[in-house]
# Entry
Amino acid sequence: MAASTQTALRYSLFPAKVDRPMKDSPLSRSGPPKPRGLPWIGCLNALLRDPMAFFATIARRYGGIAHIPLKGGRSVYLVSEPSLIKELLVDNREAYQKNIRHGAMLRLIGDGLLLSEGETWRRERRATQPAFRLAEIDHQLGWMTAAIENFLDRWAPRAADAKLVDIEPLFSELTQYLAGRLLFGPRYDARAREILTLVEAIRANWPKPPRSVLASYLPRSKREAARLEAVAVLDAQLFEFIRLERADPRPAESTLGQLIENSREIGAPFTDKELRDQLATLFFAGFETSAAAMTWTHYLLARNPDKRERVFVEVDEKFGAGIPMHAQLDALTYVDQVFKEALRVHLPIHAFSRVALDENTVGGYQLPRGCTVTVSAHATHRLPEHWPDPEAFVPERFAADANAARHAFAYIPFGAGPRQCVGAQFAMLLGKLILALVARRYVLDLASDTLVRIYSTTVSRPDGGMFMRICRRPADVRS
# Structure
């Protein structure tokens, strides 16, 4: 079992498992199956206590769609079956919009690609998509490799003393730099340390999700003022990058330059505020998810040394030293399988939701206008009918023949449908690059008594950190 939140919960509130009915069955007219819940609060306490495990349990017990009662008569629908996820996000996509309920998130990233809707979103997507094509990403491999290698050079003292170190902030620092340098170009270097400090202040003062109904009534933390102050200073930095790029355009050097140029070419130039929201969205969505993915991947490799050894063998045989080309990364088929399986087991963004603009049908059930529908990728990635022995770390699940036989919506680490993450290809390439460069030089090991718990918030992180020993590989190709 990879982490404590994957323990199957036995809620006494729930009746026995109810199979999803056929669309023309009498039950389909009475609504999806649902747990009873408690008077007034429904299942809210169980959901707040551990949302990832809660949704996984609901999906296993109630089938592809379930109606979950919450506090005060409110409710949420959970859709977990891949065919129904497609129905929700593709077939019925015009009937839904993104669920924007987190004020702190809205203040941080604004009306960028993640939260925008309708024609605003389509325009933003058209202007942003070209910057994340593989041909564009290939141009970045040289400086990205050099930056990662320079960062790994700084691990040498840690490898020499073999002390436990929290690797999550290490990977966060690395991915922040890579995201900033990609977005802002070489100008980012002079401001990287200051922005890192601002990001740490924002994360340290981020609102903590309540873990019980009672906790949801507690007053807001005084940390909100510190967070808002850090966001305001970060805003000033972002607007300064925009000013500098407009005064001295260098579109070939940065995503910012490409956004300005691309939006002008489609006849809808971005304003400074629109650019600020796009940059904040791409920066935070890019570095936080990548850092979490790297942390969880190395945790899983440490828990499965036989899989890790296969990574070492493939990297030594197919990667070698020097600056890689895209073809070398494509040749790392087992590293690719490892990273994909790590995202299945411990994906950074474990759930997302939509709000129904109109009445519509999903899975044969009529869903009301205004209802909230949640997709828990964590739950879908644990459906035994699609993922046998779902808690096991089995990279071979992603061999070509297995991929071909699997429902396309059974694996959704980057969302699904038209709103799938614009940087999905870049995230996969960057993940493989970091994994391979770390594997060329280091082994990351857990202490024998390590117990890792998941802290499920906007991005799923290890609760209390991920402490590992960084050791030199005996066959370090750079030695």
In short: The first strand starts at residue 65 and ends at 69. Residues 272-303 form the longest helix (32 residues). The chain has a mean pLDDT of 87.
